[in-house]
Write a structure and sequence with these properties.
Helix content: over 70%
Number of strands: 0
Order of helices and strands: HHHHHHHHHHHH
Largest sheet: none
Radius of gyration: 18 Å
Distance between the termini: 25 Å
Structural class: mainly alpha
Shape: globular
């Protein structure tokens, strides 16, 4: 049956995908639908299409609607009120770490070994290093040629990892590849060719990446969870703004936003447990 709750879950994931550094799959974990999402994407290639559609269609409706409705609002808030917004998302990400830690131990009944901590630290450093990626030289791509569309397609493919790997943001991948502003502009102006090109790359990439993640979760559960914890923790370095609030009022609002995000994530984590 059509699950209307998934529309709102998809909306939450769609909004976060507009923000560089925030991963939609992290929000999926927060909402308790991460493994169902991987299962549904895999069902598309294993003959359980009806079951997949029952889950993915309302989720997709929520994501598309949220992106269409909030893209200009998110652009405005990130530009005018960047610090409170990023502290809010930082609180959400920080609050999911205890949930991931408990999930790893609950799945395997074992403590992390030295190798797992090495993987955790490596993933943390890998994501944290992306904070040095700048966007000052990026511009909206215009007068696109065939090679440009091919590049956008594979950019969408790489960005699709954000939907199945917690801690990796699709917007951040676009930022690294130099197509973030082009993608945002396409959504704002409803540039159908660009939207379809990137969307096809994302869709095809999801089918491949989701199967790999499910395999590693089942076969190397604790190692996979350690990587996820490192990825999510590393995204905090990317999310927290480098320019701190300049006034007492802005500090107060930013701290309240951080605490709100943290409490929200911890509450959802307890409910899921």
């Amino acid at each position: 049956m059509f699950n209307w709750k998934n529309v709102f879950r998809g909306a939450a994931m769609g909004i976060t995908e507009l923000v560089p550094g925030v991963s939609a799959s992290t929000i999926a974990m927060l909402l308790g639908i991460y493994e169902k999402l991987l299962q549904a994407i895999s069902d598309l290639t294993t003959g359980h299409i009806k079951r997949a559609f029952r889950f993915l269609v309302p989720l997709g409706i929520g994501m598309v609607a949220a992106v269409a409705l909030f893209v200009k609002i998110i652009e405005y808030l990130l530009h005018v009120h960047n610090q409170p917004m990023m502290f809010l998302f930082a609180g959400l990400v920080l609050g999911i770490l205890p949930f991931l830690w408990r999930s790893a131990h609950a799945e395997t009944k074992h403590s992390f070994k030295p190798l797992h901590y090495v993987l955790m630290i490596g993933a943390f450093v890998l994501i944290a290093m992306t904070s040095f990626v700048g966007e000052s030289n990026q511009a909206v791509m215009e007068n696109l040629s065939l090679p440009d569309y091919i590049y956008l397609f594979f950019s969408g493919w790489l960005a699709s990892t954000a939907l199945v790997l917690p801690g990796i943001s699709g917007s951040l991948v676009f930022l690294i590849l130099g197509v973030y502003h082009t993608a945002i502009a396409a959504l704002s102006t409803i540039n159908i060719p660009v939207i379809i090109t990137i969307g096809c790359g994302v869709g095809l990439g999801l089918l491949v990446t989701s199967r790999l993640v499910r395999f590693f979760l089942k076969t190397y559960t604790q190692a996979t969870y350690s990587l996820m914890i490192g990825l999510v923790a590393g995204s905090l370095i990317v999310i927290v703004p480098t320019e701190l609030p300049g006034t007492f009022l802005y500090w107060l609002v930013s701290i309240m936003a951080l605490l709100f995000g943290l409490v929200t994530a911890l509450t959802f984590g307890k409910a899921e447990r």
